[in-house]
Amino acid sequence: MNMTMCCQIGVMGAANDVLSDADRQRLPEVCERLGRAIAAKGCAVVTGATTGLPEMVSRAARKHGGLTIGISPAISATEHADHYHYPLDAAEVMIYTGFGLKGRNVINIRSSDIVIIVGGGMGSLNEFTIAYDEGKVIGVLEGSGGITDHVREIVGFAKKAMTGCLIFAAEPERLIEECLAAWRQRQAGEPYQE
To answer: How many domains does one find in the chain?
Structure first.
């Protein structure tokens, strides 16, 4: 494992109960690439310790030597597994918040330097809006379905100025590269330049 992490990248996306059968077939390879790209950059992956796309990305990053952190809505491992039916082994480090799903979402976003949205339903939309309000660097993996297909429309409809930056890309590797470039510019006190 690379101990010189450049940043923490939160991956927010559809859990198993939101994924369609078609998405279950087509998205594992995309999640593998996303997890591998994050690990290759020496970044930690932060997820909601859930199933589905975040779990796939977390497992891929871990397989490729990345540090993975799961932020659980549960107060304990028992509640995490028995009440939420979430995996206990998808992340290397588990943090049990006891704050429920919405409270967990705030911690996910605030613990992430960069937020990546892949697929996603209502929970991912909640995470996206928190990240937007918090002024995070947000990457949207185009073509991954769910809310990612509607982010431009949501932002346009909301008409709220953004203090962070919003990056769209269909290739996981390119998305991570562009998000890291924006994050580094912010770290250096420079405005994001496309």
So the answer is: 1
